[in-house]
Task: structure prediction
Amino acid sequence: MATLGVRGDGQVNEAVPCPWGSHALCVVTIDGEDHWVDTTAQMIGWDVLPKDDRDRACYVTDDKGIRLTRTPALAPADNATVQTTTVTVGPDGSIKAERTAEYRGLAAWTKRDDFVDTPAAERRRLAVADLVDAYPKARLRTLTLDGLDDADKPLTVKVAFEAAEHFAGD
Result:
């Protein structure tokens, strides 16, 4: 078990060793590697810590005793979005495109929260809002969500869309 203070509710001070804390994390060691679990976080993978739990001084209590350590720092791989868009340009300057965005770690947690328990029409509105920054005339054809119900996997959002006259004008 790791003990730390909830952000804004005090901190474990490394200069003054006192095992104070108001929040607990579970630390599981598998094959010599520590895996950190915040059991209070919902819709998050079992080995994904929320941002507020990252790189924090804490006390770990286990069969060896009590020790001062830090929770894992946030690495780029822990908060990544990999996006690919395939575009077909028509002779009239219109486009047909397919975009796949894979959200990993904290990015999946945040994006999953947008879509879970959200009606289909609102999901489509959210997908269109993501598209219109790059494609202002985008018209969504299909939306597919993979990994929405499995927090231990990345969330993959696939959209197919069209945009008339995307490459038109001077």
